[in-house]
Design brief:
The protein has helices at 44-55, 84-88, 118-127, 162-171, 187-196, 201-213, 222-239, 251-263, 273-288; strands spanning 6-11, 16-22, 25-32, 60-64, 78-79, 92-95, 98-100, 104-108, 111-115, 135-139, 144-150, 153-160, 244-248, 267-271. It is an alpha/beta fold. The strands form three sheets. The chain has a six-stranded mixed sheet, sandwiched between helices.
């Protein structure tokens, strides 16, 4: 089935990417720092009109934090297990040619979890053949998503605040002066990963301060080590004695997580985010048009 041209928006907290898609291919792109934190509730109609003026007066399908309580309009979560068809069946329509994709929710007793936007990329990766229908998926970021995919459905997931914790450590507190150097996936990072795998996180992090005071580690390595501790703790909690992990990630984060997974005995298979998003949002459009 040929999908008529439409505009797809990945509208996150701090950034927005808009695509004109023609039969599942990118014909034009418009990127902006106008994430939902930069938008007032009344700003969205004019902003979308400006996007249409740039990319074409077309139907629009939006995913991400635009459907949250701090976005344009709340798009209620779809409970897992869920696949792309379940998501397409629960779009929140602004008007007859503008809709918001719902996020996913997961509950297990008193434990709950939610995601918005990542579901399009993660399920899209499976639709694009980037990952198998049964797999452990990981999408790193400020809030890292770990997803169990079974038969092409999301059956459970966990969110880890790994990236946000690192940002908080860099932004203030006793470790902040030591964490100014760039992070790289070298020996100090891998040492941190192995330390983080002990999952004694509070003690491991204070050890960074103690090593500095006692002159045991080059201060230029502290940020890489700290990142390794956090990511190592995150990865160790998911892969046990080793497991294939399909990373839907790009750039430095893909490298850091792949290095941590392989350091702890797993195998990382990396696929890109943009292709996965395009595949997912195009399939949603096909099912909902």
């Amino acid at each position: 089935m040929v999908v008529s041209p439409f505009i797809a928006l990945d509208w996150g907290t701090t950034n927005r990417r808009a695509y004109r898609l023609e039969d599942g291919r990118i014909a034009a792109t418009a990127k902006s720092p106008k994430g939902v934190l930069a938008m007032a509730a009344d700003d969205y109609p004019a902003e979308l009109a400006a996007i249409r003026a740039e990319l074409g007066d077309l139907p629009a399908l939006m995913a991400g934090m635009v459907g949250s309580t701090i976005g344009w309009r709340v798009a209620p979560y779809v409970a897992v297990p869920a696949d792309i068809a379940d998501i397409a069946a629960h779009l929140s329509w602004i008007d007859d040619r503008t809709a918001i994709v719902p996020g996913l929710s997961f509950t297990d007793g008193n434990h709950g979890d939610v995601m918005r936007g990542e579901e399009v990329q993660l399920l899209g990766a499976a639709l694009a053949g980037q990952v198998p229908a049964d797999a452990l998926l990981c999408q790193p970021g400020t809030h890292c998503k770990w997803v169990e995919l079974t038969g092409g459905k999301v059956t459970g997931f966990t969110t880890a605040m790994t990236g946000e914790l690192f940002a908080l450590l860099k932004g203030g507190g006793v470790l902040a002066p030591q964490l100014a150097a760039p992070v790289s996936a070298g020996d100090a990072y891998r040492e941190g990963v192995r330390e983080g795998a002990k999952r004694d996180l509070a003690a491991s992090l204070f050890g960074i301060r103690a090593s500095h005071v006692l002159g045991l580690r080059d201060e230029a390595q502290a940020a890489s080590y700290a990142s390794g501790v956090l990511i190592g703790s995150d990865v160790a909690a998911r892969i046990g004695d080793g497991r294939d992990v399909h990373l839907v990630a790009d750039g430095d984060l893909a490298t850091l997580y792949a290095t941590a997974i392989e350091t702890l005995g797993g195998r990382a298979i990396v696929s890109g985010c943009e292709d996965a998003f395009i595949a997912g949002i195009t399939h949603i459009r096909k099912l909902s048009a």
